[in-house]
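Quick start: what a row looks like.
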Amino acid sequence: MDPQLKGCIVDLVLQVELLWPSRWSILKLFYFQNQALCTTFTMMSAQQFITMKIMSDSFCTFNLIGVGIATFISLPMCNSMLLERTRALVGSERPILDAVLVAYFFLSYTITGVLIMTSLQFRNKIFFSPTIRICSAAIHPKEMELIWICPMLFETTVFVITTIRIYQTREPSGACFSSRLFSILFRDGVYYCVSNSSSAHGILSHRTPNYLVHLYGHIHPLGDHVRRLLSTPTQFNKSKELIVHL
């Protein structure tokens, strides 16, 4: 099982307790829904990386557009979690700040909706490439280059506000500022870096034997054993347990 999938299923409660206070039930609900979406579409997308068979064009179309629609559903929940955390950290007595954050929220959501509509327009050009054995699209619209602008602006704003707030509430000695900032960055950032790195490692470990089979027609049993060792989620789980305990 892919390490990221195992993390979604096994350590879900620990992740929620780590990231969100128990009193924020709506944020917990958003987090559970996001995990369900990620698990479902990660399993779907993994089919094109793991299988040795030719996938149908209709499956690729359903998969790619499904991921886009799942992102359309997931993005407002993610931004809502960031928005509520920022409000709780800074306080609700700053209406201008709230207005700016809400504007970023709706702008990023609108951009995502435009991208989904764009992907629907070229759905007839999505196909499975038998050469590289992966789903592909015949075109790459220029609108895709804008996909990261609004989310990056939103997350940068949240990061700057968090840093300023921690600095304002630091102890007079100043020693607390760096430690609190580091702990928050470690908690909110390192876990996702570990998840993404493990996911990329899992895809690589699956794609390498597929590529060898495509070139040579078979793979030695010893090579398959090595692949299974590379896919072992032990180190990934140890990293997550360390972060949870911290």
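That is the whole record. The chain has nine helices and two strands. Strands lie at 126-129, 134-137.
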